[in-house]
Amino acid sequence: MSLADKITMLMSRPGGDNAQKDDVPWWMRYAGRGLGTVGSFIAIILGLINCTGIILMNVSCLIAGVWQMLAGFIVIVCEAPCCCFFIDYVQTLSDRIETRPYWNKAALYIGLALPPFFLCFLSMSTWFGSGLIFATGIIYGMMALGKKGSRDDMAAMATAGTPPGAPAHDHTVTLMEDPDVWRPN
Q1: For FRET with 97, which of 47, 75, 88, 154 sits at 20 to 30 Å CA-CA?
Q2: What pLDDT does 127 receive?
Q3: C-beta pairs of 51-55 under 8 Å, 24+ apart in sequence
Q4: What was the pLDDT predicted at 47?
C-alpha cells in the first residue's frame, strides 16, 4: 500500500461505515478524534516533564510520567495512526480499534488515564496530561450513550413511566392474580 493510499484511507476514517456510529453527530466524532490527538501529544510532553521527578527522588512521579507517555502513545496510535506511520503494525491496530464500539474506546482511555493520578497526585502535569486523555474517554463515553430521546418521549417517561407505543402495565395486579406472570410456559 502506498503512502498516498494510506493518507486517503486515514482521511476517510472519521466518517466510518460502522452502523453504530451513524447516530453520532459529525462534530462529536471530530471532537473525540481531535482531543485524542492533541491531548495525547500534550500528555507525552507533560509525561516527560513529569519524569523529572526523579531528581527529587520521587519514583512514583517517574512511573506516572512513563505511564502517561505510554498512554499518550497508545491514544495517538488509535486516533491518529498517520503520526506513527513508520511503525508497521500501527495501521492494523488502529483499524481493529476503529471497529470496536465507542464504549470500548471510552473504557480504554479512561483506564489508561487513571493510574498517573494515583501515582503522582500533586503534579499539575499529571492532572493536565492525563486529564486530556480522560476527557477523550468521556467524549467517547457520551458517543456510546447515543442521541438523547425526543421531547415527546422524555415527557411521556416523566408522566406515565412508559414510552409512547409501549404496552402499559396495570400495576394494581398482584403476582397471584395474574397467572401468566408466575406460571411456567
Answers
A1: 47
A2: 94
A3: 53/120, 53/123
A4: 95
pTM of the model: 0.72
Categorize the per-residue pLDDT at 19 as very low, low, confident or very high, splitting at 50, 70 and 90.
very low
- State the number of CA atoms in the 13 A half-sphere of 69 facing the CB: 12
Q: Which residues contact 179 (CB under 8 A, 6 or more apart)?
A: none
- CA nearest neighbour of 127 among 46, 28, 24, 37: 46
Specify the range with the lowest mean pLDDT, choosing from 14-23, 117-126, 156-165.
14-23
Q: How many CA atoms lie within 13 A of 129 on its CB side?
A: 33
Question: Rounded distance, CA 151 to CA 155, Å?
Answer: 6
What is the Cα–Cα distance from 101 to 159, expressed in whole angstroms? 33
C-alpha grid cell for residue 8? 486517503
Closest CA to 130 of 34, 78, 84, 66: 66
Alpha helices in the chain (DSSP H): 3-11, 26-50, 59-79, 90-98, 102-119, 124-145, 151-159, 179-182
